Amino acid sequence: MNTTAVVTGANRGIGRAITTRLLADGFTVAGLHRSGDLPEGAHSYTADLTDAASVSAAFEQIRADLGPVGVLVANAGITKDGLLARMSEEDFAAVLDTNLTGTFRCVKAAAKDMMRERYGRIVLISSVVATYGGFGQVNYAAAKSGLIGMARSIARELGARGVTANVIAPGFVETDMTASLPDKIVADYKSRIPAGRFAAPEEIAAAVAFLASKDAGYVNGTVVNVDGGLGMGH
């Protein structure tokens, strides 16, 4: 079992919580990010997920410094919300390039080690909107739903080599982004969630930790909804 884990978007929110949890579980964690600091103990690497050469170079450096990559948690993403009638092609393409194609670039780079070592855990962070839909989020929902098809295709291709690919679909999570929402909007969202609250980032990280573990070897191509019941498994 290779204990080097790469987490993208590791400097804030859910990615930071995932990094902290994997460190606590004994992984050597390489945080891939563009700015900011990482939790103590994590190894910092910078990359632009929209640039294939940048991603490839970062993974080569991680491999040289920390050894083969055994776990990839693809968490980094952006939003450029807007109503369909007003959404520009540039905003649609930018979200797909980071959230979907950027994930592909990372998976392709990490899979080299996993196939060679015949062991790997790939966890893609999607969203409840992937199957539930999101008002003003045609681009984001398209990218996040694409991750499900990506993971399931990877699972079929690499499953026989000891590599799993799964998806976490979080609902609303207590992060800087949701903290800036107006109280009325937060109350409306919470009224639709059976749990009646937003998730703590650590609750998403706990689900990731299981899928990243050796114990999850027979869980492959699945979507784990961590949304308080909002999506009801759509």
From TrEMBL:
<dbReference type="InterPro" id="IPR002347">
    <property type="entry name" value="SDR_fam"/>
</dbReference>
<dbReference type="InterPro" id="IPR020904">
    <property type="entry name" value="Sc_DH/Rdtase_CS"/>
</dbReference>
<keyword id="KW-0560">Oxidoreductase</keyword>
<dbReference type="GO" id="GO:0016491">
    <property type="term" value="F:oxidoreductase activity"/>
</dbReference>
<dbReference type="InterPro" id="IPR036291">
    <property type="entry name" value="NAD(P)-bd_dom_sf"/>
</dbReference>
<comment type="similarity">
    <text>Belongs to the short-chain dehydrogenases/reductases (SDR) family.</text>
</comment>
<dbReference type="InterPro" id="IPR057326">
    <property type="entry name" value="KR_dom"/>
</dbReference>
<feature type="domain" description="Ketoreductase">
    <location>
        <begin position="3"/>
        <end position="176"/>
    </location>
</feature>
<dbReference type="InterPro" id="IPR050259">
    <property type="entry name" value="SDR"/>
</dbReference>
<dbReference type="GO" id="GO:0032787">
    <property type="term" value="P:monocarboxylic acid metabolic process"/>
</dbReference>
<dbReference type="Pfam" id="PF13561">
    <property type="entry name" value="adh_short_C2"/>
</dbReference>
<protein>
    <submittedName>
        <fullName>Beta-ketoacyl-ACP reductase</fullName>
    </submittedName>
</protein>
